[in-house]
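Our consortium's second objective concerns turning raw sequence data into structural hypotheses that experimental partners can test. To show how far this objective has progressed, the report includes one record in full. It was chosen at random from the queue rather than selected for favorable results. The single chain below, 291 residues long, was entered without modification.
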Amino acid sequence: MRSMTGYGKAVLSNEYFTVSVEIKGVNNRFLDLSVRLPKELSSEEIQVREFLKNKVIRGKIFVYVNVEQSQQNGSELFVDWQAAEKKVKQLNALRERFKLADELKLTHLLMFPELFAMDLESVVETQIRPLLLGALEKAAQEFIHMREQEGANLLRDMRQRMRKIEELVDEIKEIAPQNVKAEFERLYRNVQSLIEEQNIDRSRMEQELAILSDRVDITEECVRLKSHIGLFNQTVENDGDIGKRLNFILQEMHREANTINSKTTMLEISHKVITIKEEIEKLREQVQNIE
């Protein structure tokens, strides 16, 4: 199980560049990627997105990439050779045309900074992309590891809450017959008080009351709740996109708890149901953060 919140960062360097990658994740119903790259790496965005789509299923994911040039990296490392050759020919032509005695030197060429403009495509291909992919992989590993740790914490807490709910359901199920009996007696007293002075068929009246009191039997709801608890515990052990399924199971559990509450007049059962619903709501909040 993974949480949708997490953070990962990695920094890789070579002789010329330093690339840092940060990945942050928060809750979201679907996968929503926000990738921020330096302008010179805009062509790498599709590759970054595809990489992350293979790593995560859901969540709002923020990716920040930064590239810095190493101090020892001079622009002369990226000579525009075609422009330099053209400039040398032009300077030699000038020297010959005006019969200049001075020889052409490197210092003369250094006066033309455009000759040393970075060959961006080549630099990205040979120098930056390997750093980007390596840092992205490491940051993603750290990000996923943190998600898994958070998921393990959530799992422990959810199991504890589910055990508490199961204990309460067992207690309710044990006293469920008392609820039927109490409801029968309540209905019987009400009817008896209304027709006390009339000649009635007591046997027929008791049959009708038994039918009515049977409608307040909560045994079936307890059985379904237990079944939902088992399904929840089984689902949390699965991999993949389980958050939505868990949320659906909790909705069904909440429905059963409401039905139990509507069928009882026993305060003891009502109080237990209130606690069950509180735990279900806490679980639903936690499930929102599960991938």
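The partners drew two points from this record. The mean pLDDT is 85. Residues 235 and 242 are 7 Å apart (CA to CA). Both points have been shared with the crystallography group to help prioritize constructs.
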